[in-house]
């Protein structure tokens, strides 16, 4: 059994609403959410694992990628206006 003291009212309400929407109990939903969260490594474990992996060569030209993204995000009329 798990009891959480001082559980914020807004989180309680959101948990209740989601459980109702999913047709389950708050306890079952909370257990699923905790299981999903605890199945993931901690940030420290993930960073340690990442540090143990060998460095890889970049297959992407970063400057070109950034230019491509900027070009996609610019409004079309800004691309044709040299003063923009």
Which band does the percent of strand residues land in? Answer: under 5%
Shape: flat
What distance lies between the first and last C-alpha atoms, to the nearest angstrom? 62 Å
Low-pLDDT residue spans? none
Structural class: mainly alpha
Largest pleated sheet: none
Helices and strands, in order, run as HHHHH
User: Whole-number average pLDDT?
Assistant: 88
Radius of gyration of CA atoms, rounded to a whole number: 23 Å
| Beta strand count | 0
Number of helical runs? 5
Number of domains: 1
Q: If you had to describe this structure to a student in words, what would you say it looks like?
A:
The protein has 84 residues and is mostly helical. It has one domain (9-75). It has five helices and no strands.
Features:
84 residues
Explain the layout of strands and helices.
Blueprint: H1 9-22, H2 26-39, H3 43-52, H4 62-73, H5 76-80
Helix pairs in contact: 1-2
Q: How do you describe this structure in short?
A:
This protein is mainly α and 84 residues long. It contains 5 helices and no strands.
């Amino acid at each position: 059994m798990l009891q959480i003291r001082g559980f914020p009212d807004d989180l309680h309400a959101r948990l209740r609403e989601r459980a109702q929407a999913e047709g389950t109990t708050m306890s079952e939903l909370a257990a699923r959410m905790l299981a999903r969260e605890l199945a993931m490594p901690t940030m420290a474990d993930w960073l340690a694992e990442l540090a143990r992996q060998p460095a890889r060569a970049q297959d992407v030209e970063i400057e070109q990628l950034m230019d491509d993204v900027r070009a996609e995000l610019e409004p079309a009329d800004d691309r044709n206006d040299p003063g923009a």
